[in-house]
Structure formats: C-alpha cells, structure tokens
Amino acid sequence: MAAPHPGDTAPDPTTTPTGDDTTARPHGVAKPRRLFDREILGPAVVEAFRKLHPKVQVRNPVMFVVLVGTVVTLVEAVAHPSVFTWSITVWLALTVLFANFAEAVAEGRGKAQAETLRRMRSETTARRLTGSGDEERVPAAELVRGDLVVCEAGDLVPSDGEIVEGIASVDESAITGESAPVIRESGGDRSAVTGGTRVLSDRIVVRITAERGQTFLDRMISLVEGADRQKTPNEVALTILLAALTLVFLPVVVALRPFGTFSGASVSVTVLVALLVCLIPTTIGALLSAIGIAGMDRLVQRNVLALSGRAVEAAGDVQTLLLDKTGTITLGNRMASTFAPVPGVDEAALAEAAQLASLADETPEGRSIVVLAKERFDLRERALGEDHVFVPFSATTRMSGLDVDGRQIRKGAAEAVRRWVLEQGGDVPDGLDELVDGFARAGSTPLVVADGPKVLGVIELKDVVKQGIRERFDQLRAVGIRTVMITGDNPLTAAAIAQEAGVDDYLAEATPETKMELIKAEQAGGKLVAMTGDGTNDAPALAQADVGVAMNSGTTAAKEAGNMVDLDSNPTKLIDIVEVGKQLLITRGALTTFSIANDVAKYFAIIPALFVSTYPQLGALNIMKLHSPQSAVLSAVIFNALVIVALIPLALRGVRFRPSSASAILRRNVLVYGVGGIIVPFVFIKLIDLVLTGTGVF
Amino acid sequence: MGYFWTIVVLVAVLALAWRFLGSYLAAVYEGRVTYLRFVERPLYRLLAVDPEAEQSWTRYAGALLVFSAVALLLSYLLIRIQGSLPFNPQHLGAVPPALSWNTAVSFVTNTNWQNYAGESTMSYFSQMAVLEVQQFVSAAVGIAVAVALIRGFARRGSSTIGNFWLDLVRGVLYVLVPIAFLAGVVFVGQGAVQTLGGPAVVHNALDGATQTIARGPAGFMEAIKQLGTNGGGFFNANGAHPFENPTGLTNLLSIALLLCIPVALTYTFGKLAGSVRQGVAVLAAMTIIFGAWLGVASFAESQPNPAVTATHAVAQPQGNMVGKEARFGPLSSSLYNVASTQTSTGSIDSANDSYTPMGGFALLTGMMLGEVTPGGVGSGLYTILLFAIITVFIGGLMIGRTPEYLGKKIQAREVKLAAFAVLVMPLVVLVLTAVATSVHAGRAGPLNAGPHGFSEILYAFTSQANNNGSAFAGLSGNTAFYNVTGGLAMLFGRFAIIVPTLALAGTLAAKEAVPAGLGTFRTDTPLFTGLLIGIIIIVGGLTFFPAVALGPIVEQLSHGRLF
Hints:
The structure holds two protein chains of two kinds. By secondary structure, chain A is α+β, with helices and mostly antiparallel strands. Chain A is built from 23 helices and 21 strands. In chain A, α17 links the parallel β17 (482-486) and β18. Chain B folds into two domains: 2-201 and 211-269, no CATH class; 379-557, no CATH class. Chains A and B meet through α7, α8, α11, α21 and α23 of A and α14, α15, α17 and α19 of B.
C-alpha cells in the first residue's frame, strides 16, 4: 500500500466504504429471504405443535390462559357435544397454534442462518508450534488458549486468535460475505483473525485466544439461533402489563356467571371462555416473542451481530451518537481540492505536473489528484511512454512521483520535497512556507509538487464529507438524537468539518481518555450513548457506552468490549442500528394498542349474544347485526385467531419507522393502530359472521 | 341564579383555587409555610417525631398504615362505647359491631359510606370526636400520598420521599382546618345547624302533634365533609337536608369545596414535579371527562323519568323531579351529584336511586373510572398519575423509546406497581358483586328486582371500593353481610392502592432523570391528554362494560319498564 503523503496512517481496505452503502443489498451470513420462505414454513408448522408443551406455554401468561381455556372447552365439548362447542374448541386451539407458529417462523429464520454457518465450520487440522519450535498437527478442537499455530497460504484459520508474527491477506467472506481479501498483520489494530477464515497469502503465526465452543463463529451461531435469548427489560415490562390485563379479565368474565344467574340468564362456560380469550390481549401476547426475535434477525440481515437483545433495545433509546470522523462522516481518504502554485508559476502548469506525478499512483489520494486536474483544466489521462519510471512512496523518502521524458516530478511532504529540491540544486521559493502552513492550519494536508529542482506549488488534500450524511443527521435530530463527531484533528479543522457535515457537536484532538470522559459526562446527564470503535484503545469506551458497536475488522479486545459487532465494519451502520431498536419498540407498542382496541368490537359482538335471551332489549347493542348469538361468539373467536396470522408479517418486518418527531410518530400510530384497531374488527367480525351464516349451521 | 351562571361562578372559583391554593399547597408541603409553628412543634414532640428526618417509602408506608390502623381501632372502640361517653343528649346506645366495623373503616378510608342514619345512631361525641376527626386526618393522609408521589417525580437519586407525620400534620393544620373553619362559618351563617343542645321538640298547637326534630353540630362538619371529599353527613338525608345544606349559596359552596383541593393539586403537581403545563395536561383530562359525564347526567335528568311517563300519571315539565329537592331542581342536583361521585365525596343532594337510567349510569360509571376526575383529595391525583404511567408506557413504546414520565424511566417495576394499583379497584368491585349476587345474604339486599336491583348492588361496591361513599339507596346495606364485605371493599380500595403508589414514589425518587429531547414523548400536550382520557375510559370500559350492560344499560333500553 502506498501512502503518498505524510502524517496519515495506512488506509485499510476494509474501512474505505465508498459512499453510503448501508442500503446495499444485505450479504454475508444473512441470506436474504422472503418473509415466508418454504424452507422455514415447513419446520415451523411442526414446531408450532411441539411448542404446545405446557412448560413452553407457561412462559407466556397470555397464551397459557388460552391453552387452559381450550382444555376447558374441550372437556365441555366432549361432555356436551355440539357443532358450536367443537367449533369454539378448535378455533381456540388454533389460536394457540398460530401463536406458536409465529414464534417458530421468527426462530426459523435464525435457525436457517445458523445452519449455513455450521456448514462453514468444517473440522480443520491445526499446525501447532511446540515449545522447541517444531510443528505438530493436531485437530483444531484440541487447541487451547495461548497455543501458537502456523497458517500459510491456503490454510483455514483453526480458531480465533491474534497474529503474533507475520502479515497475510485473509479471505473473511465466510463471516462477512465480503469477497475482497483483507490484510492482517501482527501488532496494531489489524492483528485479529477469526476461526473459519482462509489465509490467501504469506505465513502468519497466530496465538489462539478462544477455546473451542467459544469462538466468534460459535457465538454467532448461538446468537442467530436465539438459543439463549433472554427477555429484554422492555419486554419484561410489557409482559407484566399484559399479564395484569389478562388477570383483570379473569374476574370480569368469571363474575358474569353469577351476574347472569342473578339476572335470570344461564351463561355457558364455553361462551365465557370464548369471551375471556377474546378480551385478553392475545394478539400482542402471541406475537411478542416473534417481534423480539425478528428484531435481532433484522440486525443480522444488516450484518450486525447484537450480543444481547438488551443492546438492541438500548439502541432505540440512544440520545447521543459518537461517530468517528474518518470513515463515518468523511470518506476514508482525503481528496485533492486545490492547486496552489507558488508565485511565478501558472496554476495549469502545477496541475499538469501534479497529474503526471499521480498517474501511476493508485491510492485514492492519487486518483483524486488526477480527477481534480481533469475537472479544473480538462487534463485528460495520458498514456505514458515506455521510458517512464514510477517512483513509489516509501517511508524514508516520503515522496512519490514519476521520471518521464527527462523530467523528475515528485510530490510529497513539504519537508521531504524541500530536502529533495535542495539536493537537486534548486531553491525553495518564497511563499511556499506560507502556503503549506495555511493549509495545515485549516486541517488539510499540503502536498508539495516539484519538477526537478523547481518547486511548482502545493496540492491541498481535504477531508470530503460523505454524500447524504447531512440528511441522515437531520433525520436523527428529528427523532431527538444528538450526533457528536470524534476526531483527532485540531479544533479548527474539526469545527469546519462539523459545520459541513451538520453534526451537533464535535470532540477535537480526541484521545481514548477524552472520548471516555465525554461518554461518562453524557451518561451522567442521563443520556444513553452509542459509539463505534475498532482499536484496542477504544475498548474501554466501547464497554462504557450503552451501545458499543465494534468493527469486525477491529481487534479482539474491541470486539469483546462492545455489545454489537458489525461484520461489514461500516461505522455508518450505527444509524441503522438505532432505527432497528426503535422499530422494535414501536412494533410492540402498536400491536399492544391494536390488541386492546380490538376488545371494543368483541364486546359488542359477545355481550348482546350472552344476554339477549334474558334481556331482548340488549339486542340493541348488537350493532353489527350479527346473525345469531352462536355465530356472533364464534365470529369473534375466529377473528381473534386469524388476526394473529394476519399480523405475523408485520411482527416480523416491524412497523414502518420514518424518522420524525415523537409527536408525529405517536399521532400516526395512535391513528393507525388505536383507531384502526377499534374499526377493523367490526368489519371483519361482520364478514366472518356472513360466511358462517352462509354455511347454514349457525 | 341560572344553571349557566352557576357553572361560570364555579369555574371562576376553581380557577382561582387551582392557581392560588395550588401554589399554597406546594409551599405547605415544601415546608415554607410556618405560621403555625407553635402548634406544629409540640405536636411533633407528642408524636415523638423528628421533623428533620426523612423517610424511605417503606417507612413512610409503614407510618401511614400504623396511623390508619390505630385510627381504625380507636374509631371502632369509641363508637362501640358511645353510650358511656359525654355529649350524648339522645342517650344513644352502642353501635352494633358489624356496623361499627363498616363505619370505622368507612371514615378512616375517606369513604364515608354510611350504613346508618347519623341523627339516630351517632352521639354528638361520635360525630365530632370520631367521625369528624377522621374526616380531617383521612383527607390529610390522601394528600400526603399524592405529595409523596409528586416528590418521587421531582427528586433525583433520592432514597426518601418525605416524612409522613410532617405531611399529615401540615395538611391538617395549614390546609384543612383553616379552610374548613372559614367555610363552616358561612354554612352556619346561611342557616346550617350548629348546636350541642340536643333535638328540638316542636309542639304543633293546631293538630296537637309533637314533632322531635334532630339537631346537632352539623354546620362545621358540613365544611370538612365537602372539603376533604369525605361525604359523610351529619344527617341521613345528607346534602338534601336543609340543616346541612340550607341555601343555594351553600349548595354552590359545597360543590366548590369538594372540587377545590383535587383541582388545586394538579397545579401543585406541575409546580413541584416539572412544569405547570404537566399539571394542566392532567387537569384537562379530568375536566373533559367530568364535563362529558356532567353533560350526560344533566341531559338525562332534564328528561322526563321514563318510569313516571309509563304510568301516564303526571306531566313532567321540569324533567325528572323524582327524588330531587324542589329548591335545586334537576340541573343543579345533577351538578352536585356528579361532582360528588367524581370526587369520591359521595354526599348527595338528590336521590341517586331515582335518577333516570342514564343519569344513574353517569353517576355509577363516573366512579368506575377510578375516581380520577378529579377524584378525592390526594387520591384523585395519585390515581390519575398511575393511569398516566400506563399511558406513558404504551405511548412511549409507540414512539420507539423506553418510556419516561417527567424524566423518570418507566420500566418493569413501575409498570408492575401502576398496573396492580389501577386494577385493584375493578377486581374488588367485580369479585364482591359476584359474591353478593350469588349468596342469599347478598341477594336479600336490593329493594328492586332485575337490572335495577343489580345496579343497586353494583353501585354499593363500586362506591365503597372507590372510597366514594355515595349510596344508590334501595339497598339494605346495614346487614352483617354488606357491613363486612363493604368494609373489605373500602380497605382494599384505599390501602391496596396507597401502598403500591408509595412504592412507586420510592422507586421513582431513586431514579435519575433523563433530559427531555425531541425524541421524548411529551406529556404536556393535548395529544397526551387525549391518550390519557382514552386509557382511563378503556380500562374502565373494558372492566365494567358487561356489568354495566346488565344494570343501567338494560334499564335504559327498557324505556321505563319495571322489573
């Protein structure tokens, strides 16, 4: 890799996303699937029956009540068989099965992905180094922490580890889906390798950092499978509310029997159970866990692994986003923006020399100089003759350039070029220092261009803010999230870029310590903070942040400190993660509201049906004009069961989230799921009643 | 004064009370009002209380429960032995055990359900030293709980929520006693009876009949009865009795008194816990529901009574005058009774039992919403805040944030406590009504058959579990069965809500506040008020719809047919 200018670290191919690619088609572990994939549906149906086990059901109080109710009506149906009691029993059983099915479908997507990962985890043989420096071949399963193994071109990395010696290009597509190889080398922030990836070139010695069963791949499998999924705090709170609502409807319904007796009406147990099931929030109760699983799944689809559901939920609450400037807000590389000739030199001449010097330079900076020359002076790329010599960048010369047609053109750090010009017997012109200092002060990188002993001028390399990023920040501001740019630049430069990108605040000359202080200060004010990081020195801050997204290209320390890993190593993804977190909560809230709002119509269906024989006046409450008491009750029960199935896609996909103010989102959701939730069942219960009437049985 | 002007004057008076009484209450409970220091100090020494010491929620709740238990026991004992106590010109004997239990619970819980006729059951001593004292302290307990909850919102990272004894003493000394005294003077000035002279014996020279007219220290009791949203009157006829409520002015004053503290507390809440706007949002929800229910009742009562119409006996040009005082008429009576049922006062100036089905429906369902519009002193505010927490939780989820109210995160523990506290009342009402309708002792209670009889039982338990105390009448409540079950309803309806509310105050106080931002679900907007109203009505509607359908709704749909 050639880095033709001073003061910048070698750009890493994995962190140079071109533009905003978060909307790109998902790849990697997450095989894009349609919502109802045949591969998933079949096993899900089987799983729905398996989940009828009371031990599974008891975890969901709402559906457990439905299960118990089904048993009660079953007894009733066996004791006093009739088409009505059997129909109710069957539909109640279906209600439970539909709920199980919803959960199974959500889990199935993860399971299918885990299966793909498992296939990758082929058994490998490791070449372990013994104490005496010899190699021995052992199965990867026998490796323990601290073992040293050798990997050469073509070898699979046997387990997670750190490179202690050497440099290699590694194909990580098995994990990330990204086919371009990445460079891994000992020391620094690019030393981690992941088990299951393949070394493409060179030889490395790796110190194993994870035991079998605890590797990144293993964790990934158990995560996408949802094997040890725990309820998130918000889910717990909602479950309590739903349990309370279920609990209160129990006396409401049970009391109807003595109330009925007092009023001279006999109320059948079957109808009471039907009423209870219709009233308790079965819709959200049935879909709650599917929503949670699907939320994690949506992150996996975006190639983000959340190590806990808690973190996903916290992402929705984040109020402050800390974003690294480079790679997130600006493109990873600086771009040429100005040609500034020294006095007495024509700007076009400078541009021409700069272009020549960069023609063979394939770094992004080099390309940008060629592009700028074309834009400003319409200088086309020229085919170079046979006799040119490309002078690559080296750490000692800190310059690069081209020897062609007897000209020696160089560009590089001011100090290096100055020395070179003096060596060539030239002079350093007046005004060069002013130019160089001016650019440096403004945060840009000055590159000095010389043609032989003659200094022509300076190229300004500037940070370029990503396209569309400003709009993303505006959206974030609309939902109440403050963005803070983190940069090592001086305050002047930082302010300029912050202004251009539209972030709310910036932290200049950031060090791991100041970053940590900033997080703690925000948290002390009660705010939740999200950040991304990849270096070992980011690890403490990643651990401190409420949502810490580690880049997969980063060090093991960083990945262990954060609570999410982005396989694409794209820091802009933080914004997506926040949206997924919000969407998760909104989906729960919307379906809860919908579920409760549905009760109004169900009451109007069932209460008149219950008592119309005793008090014919109550027929006035039958505003849907349902055919008969039996058809009314059954219609409500059928609606209640079918609505679960109808809402599975919504639960899996999540309610649409458009960034806008809290009030606007709330107003929209109250209208759609609250008011809609009142109206919809009236329509569908009536339709189901018409169908039932059509059968002529009720 | 026409109905329109009555409303205008009432609104004006309440607006003043909201602003000035509201900020006065804030000052009192922040300890900034000290003009009665010389009474306060010795009281604390007497109670062995350190006025500087703050209490955690458990100690606060413990003190409250101990105080109430002692009050319950003392009240029970004193009315049991009233025959041997002074100020008993009628030589009334001991109140029977079951009735004593019911009455003691009733006054300690700020319910004032009366299964007895005051003038022929209670000695002057019992009325003054037992019942009236409880009318002061039970009201002060209610306000104390509300203030503790407000502190829960206002404080950050605090392990304490105030000191129960201070809140109790300050409420009585600085709020209830001064206002009740001034109001009492007006009542007596208007002609309410205030005497220890015993009943008056009137001999009618024309027909030779001798009539004994009950009298007693009723005037000042009337003031605290209304101010503390107690509702327990000196006389059986309560606010319909001219010795309690002699004039149109006292009628209006009564309504203003019973509404003023619950309304003012919303200002106090806003002032102490965030911004006044927060209090306005809550008050708006209270006012809208109150207005709607008042509208229904006023409209229903200005219609002819369908049962009377069915007899074709008399014309009813004024609307439903059955059971109403001619001096108040249907509209003013509706206002009084709606205000009284929706503040958990429960005093009445007309007979609920004789309201039209829809009028009765308005009174009954007004209580079923949980006594939050504006509810009892203190209890109205703390109960509506429980609803607000549930509203915020559901609303917060819908905007994709862990919900927060006044900067405090609403999480599993808060939801658990709020949901429990909100659902206690419907649970108690439904279970006890179910028991009463199933057992013989319960079925023997109602005077009427069919839906009206059912309404009578349902109303009794709704009233008691909500600590309202108004009676639908028509139910023979003074039986062992109704005395005991009613007592249980009142106890649960009071303390099974207070304890979780204080626990909530404790957990909220311990939390740090989250700063509000654009992404925060705002709780000081019409949208929030609308949602809060929705949640209150939906919770009440979903829990009580079947029961109400079998009572007032059937009656209404029967168009005057009697069962």
